[in-house]
Amino acid sequence: MMLKRTLRIKYSKNGLLRFIGHLDTTRLLTRAIARSSIPELYNRGFSPHMQVSYGPPLPLGVSGDCEYLDLLIDEAEAMHTPNEWKNELQRYMPDGLGIQELQLMDENAPSLAESIDRARYEITIPRDFAPSNEKLARFLQKENIQVEKYSKRGVKTVDIRPDIQCFKILDTGVEKPGLSVCKIIMKIGQSASATPALLLKALLGCDWHRMPGLRIHRSELYSSAGLL
Fold it and tell me: What is the torsion angle, in degrees rounded to the nearest 10, for the CA atoms of residue 227, residue 57, residue 51 and residue 225?
């Protein structure tokens, strides 16, 4: 008898792999799952697909340590533990893609889309481009921060200020000479307008990928209950 259960997989994406898109990342992950002993389930139809859903995708060029996917499996066919599956999956991963944790979820656990509403980013900025504490304070005192946001539907002006919950300069070059490290916590999901790229453009005046040495890293994801 089939016993459907959701297996949540936490993974990281670092190094040169941050330059591959979300679709290519999902292909790497689903191919590894298909090669493993995990009893994944497929939908029915002419072209069956693995029943898998993903957390918010990483923008191109952004690394992350807290990425998630939910996979529907048949627990009745399971022959190994989640930790054994973790070690098995890691053998199929390329450099830069790491399997952090596997967890069998409760039957009534909310989906990733329902859970995740905030993200923490750590941004490393070369000192030549880094804002001063005074400039950052003036920026955050604004009631509105209007920026142009591009999408397939065209260009629209959005206010990103309500989505910024925290922006702090953690290090001004003591631990990393020549670099400043900032922490940002912002809303994420369909209802959010802000992205790290839009925030940096509004603050620094140019696209982040035009600043040599600037790095964006997503370190944590949060739900309303706290750290995911």
Answer: 20
For the chain, state the CA radius of gyration: 20
The pLDDT of 114-129, averaged and rounded, is 92
Strand bridging mode 63-74 / 215-223: parallel
Number of continuous H segments (helices) and E segments (strands) in the chain: 5, 11
**Is the pTM value of this prediction over 0.70?**
yes
Pairing of strands 226-227, 63-74: unpaired
Q: In angstroms, how far apart are the furthest CA atoms of the chain? A: 64
Residues 6 or more apart in contact with residue 218 via CB below 8 angstroms: 58, 62, 63, 64, 65, 66, 67, 119, 120, 121
| Residue 195 to residue 158: CA distance in whole angstroms | 11
Q: In the predicted model, what is the mean pLDDT of the chain?
A: 91
Full set of structural domains in the chain with CATH: 4-109 (3.30.70.2510), 117-227 (3.30.70)
